[in-house]
Amino acid sequence: MHNLFTAILLAVFFSASALADEIRPGYLELATADGALYSVKWKVPMKGDLVLSLQPALPVNCEERTPPSSMATGGAMITRWSVNCPGGVYGGRIAIDGLENTMTDVLVRVVHENGITQMERLTSGDTGF
Q: What are the extents of the domains in the chain?
């Protein structure tokens, strides 16, 4: 009986641990210091060498300024690049492509030139704002 209890306890522990790995949040940050030029930081969860298939979709007025540079660290893939968004990102749509197919959330932080910080939590049911 003791062995059965131990086996059940271990099964619950490992399944909860595996589930926790699957729902770690992503993080997207856009920050500007000069109006149109934004630095972008994109952090997406990894499990081993596998990266969740998620991609930020920035407003249509944004164009890549510097190419993305990625580095795996601490269970996540972190990618940085810069974009030029004439007129800023206010009023444009920011979304995460592929989020609807996951159990994870993404925290989005936008720092505007005037210092105002906007925070949004995106989910599989609400993938953009």
A: 24-122
Q: How many CA atoms lie within 13 A of 105 on its CB side?
A: 7
Q: Tell me, yes or no, if the pTM score tops 0.85.
A: no
Q: Which residue has the higher pLDDT, 42 or 2?
A: 42
Measured CA distances, 82 to 2, 8, 45, 91 (Å): 58, 49, 21, 19
Phi, psi of 28 (to 5 degrees): -125, 130
First to last CA, the chain: 53
Tell which residue, 127, 124, 88, has the closest CA to residue 108.
127
SS3 call for 58: coil
The model's pLDDT over 9-37, given as tens digits with 9 standing for 90+, comes to 334 333 333 333 456 899 999 999 787 99
